[in-house]
Amino acid sequence: xxxxxxxxxxxxxxxxxxxxxxxxxxxxxxxxxxxxxxxxxxxxxxxxxxxxxxxxxxxxxxxxxxxxxxxxxxxxxxxxxxxxxxxxxxxxxxxxxxxxxxxxxxxxxxxxxxxxxxxxxxxxxxxxxxxxxxxxxxxxxxxxxxxxxxxxxxxxxxxxxxxxxxxxxxxxxxxxxxxxxxxxxxxxxxxxxxxxxxxxxxxxxxxxxxxxxxxxxxxxxxxxxxxxxxxxxxxxxxxx
Length: 240
Known about the structure:
The protein contains nine helices and nine strands. By secondary structure, it is of the alpha/beta class. It starts with a strand and ends in a 5-residue tail after the last helix. Helices cover 35% and strands 21% of the residues. Strands 1, 2, 3, 4, 5, 6, 7, 8 and 9 form a nine-stranded mixed β-sheet that branches. Strand 1 (5-11), helix 1 (15-25) and strand 2 form a beta-alpha-beta unit.
């Protein structure tokens, strides 16, 4: 059986999550995917914990990096399969991901967009229609981690993750696919669970500003985006 998917996991000082992550990853048939783990030179035993389970990991590296998207760009260069997806160490795949791999990964699509269960809220987030991307690109996907399967070669057409963005380099890449008519498949399957832990008011503010910036950079109407920016700042003012 030829594997078509790689799961990329980036870790840093999260040793308490590793055992649960490796247990949950077993929900996906090991014949269907490779696992790549890039650790950012953890000091709490995270890398050593993964090293104990090296037989189940295609590539395992631990070295200092300059942030999430720097590490992700490096990890993609090790991907040998046609598609990849990102899972955090505190995220979990759903058994339905097996069906998604078997049903959707042979149509030459740039993106396969599935549903994501958010924790701890328990809310199921589904990808929205493509036409929303000029107004709210983030509503067009359920989540970059867990909910989005990406064709590896799409980076040759749409670029890698722009590390000038601290939070929304994934947004710029995905928005580019929407805007430049990349091929997209929508799935009603639940790909897995995304942990919302660690989100802060500071990250909300940065996310709002970077969303405005990427929309302008990719050619959307400045005045419309300025109105959307003001609306989002007012809406979230108590948490900023």
